């Protein structure tokens, strides 16, 4: 098989998969998890029911795949912010602010609780923890952040503190939460 | 019916109820939720199966009642610490430390996730939020804590930050977490 042909098949599969994820997320958001069926998803995606079953066994597995894609989009977004130029304090603040807004926009709902059971969430949390940890260690070396507590512990503190953004009523409150969290990271007086 | 008689019945009921809760918690801790039956619970508590069913319909409801009792014990413990004499900073630190240790000792397990679905947990969280909020407002008035962020938002920050204690490996790490959280609450430089 020439390479172009394989690429095209792969591309086609990816496109069908992505369209299925988008359709399912939209249907669940509009009608709730309980009322969405594989038949509906196939119809709205514009593919046959038999084809859909070649990709996914049930609605839950589609949603899990959709969520895994979302989590990866968020991680890539945060990694891009981390890799901006600028001093470490500014980059840390930007990453923590972005993470706080992700928490703020994705409130704890039953659906979130269901989706967060997946292994991919634990994996993403570890990746996020590791890269926040790197920023904190860099900040401790340059003297802009505290160095009396290990960077790993400070990262655990940050990521838990910022989940509070899910219970805050406004974007302004989320920004204040980030400021308070950052205050905890500065060198002690 | 003379009052003494009613009291005795009430006391007897409370004793049976408490014994049932203790037995069930011990059995579930030893053998896991799935393998504990009402028959076992009745036998270990030393009451008849029919009597047990007059108190509780199933194992889950016993566990929920046990957890509600535990949560109330924790709340009372925290309220006692809050009501100690001493300045507000010291009392806040004592309350936050105690709360962090509760989180540290009760790691997130499947059982915890199950039990935390109950309304009583949300109610206890609100009570705790309110009384931490009162301490923070008092601290802001006396100048020992920041007053540029509302006490309610700071309480939300604290309680989320301290859930990190559940992922920390040692008591020393929990104490550092409390120190970092408190640093976020001091008046900004």
Automatic annotation (TrEMBL), chains A, B:
Q: Which residues bind DNA?
A: 37-56
Q: Which residues form the HTH tetR-type domain?
A: 14-74
Question: Which Pfam families does the record match to this protein?
Answer: TetR_C_43, TetR_N
Q: Which GO molecular function annotation, any one, does this entry have? A: transcription cis-regulatory region binding
Q: Which UniProt keywords apply?
A: DNA-binding, Transcription, Transcription regulation
Xref: InterPro entries:
Homeodomain-like_sf, HTH-type_TetR-like_transc_reg, HTH_TetR, Tet_transcr_reg_TetR-rel_C_sf, TetR_SbtR-like_C
Protein name as catalogued: HTH tetR-type domain-containing protein
């Amino acid at each position: 098989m020439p390479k172009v042909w394989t690429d095209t098949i792969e591309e086609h599969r990816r496109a069908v998969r992505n369209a299925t994820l988008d359709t399912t997320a939209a249907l669940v958001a509009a009608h709730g998890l309980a009322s969405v069926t594989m038949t509906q998803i196939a119809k709205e995606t514009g593919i046959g029911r038999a084809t859909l079953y070649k990709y996914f066994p049930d609605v839950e597995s589609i949603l899990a795949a959709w969520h895994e894609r979302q989590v990866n989009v968020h991680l890539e977004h945060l990694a891009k912010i981390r890799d901006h130029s600028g001093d470490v304090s500014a980059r840390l603040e930007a990453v923590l602010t972005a993470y706080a807004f992700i928490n703020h926009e994705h409130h704890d709902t039953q659906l979130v609780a269901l989706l967060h059971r997946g292994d991919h969430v634990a994996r993403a949390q570890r990746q996020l923890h590791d890269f926040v940890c790197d920023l904190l260690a860099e900040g401790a070396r340059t003297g802009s952040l505290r160095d009396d507590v290990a960077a790993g512990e400070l990262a655990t503190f940050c990521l838990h503190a910022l989940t509070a953004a899910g219970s805050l009523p406004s974007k302004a409150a989320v920004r204040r939460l980030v400021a308070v969290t950052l205050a905890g990271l500065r060198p002690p007086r």
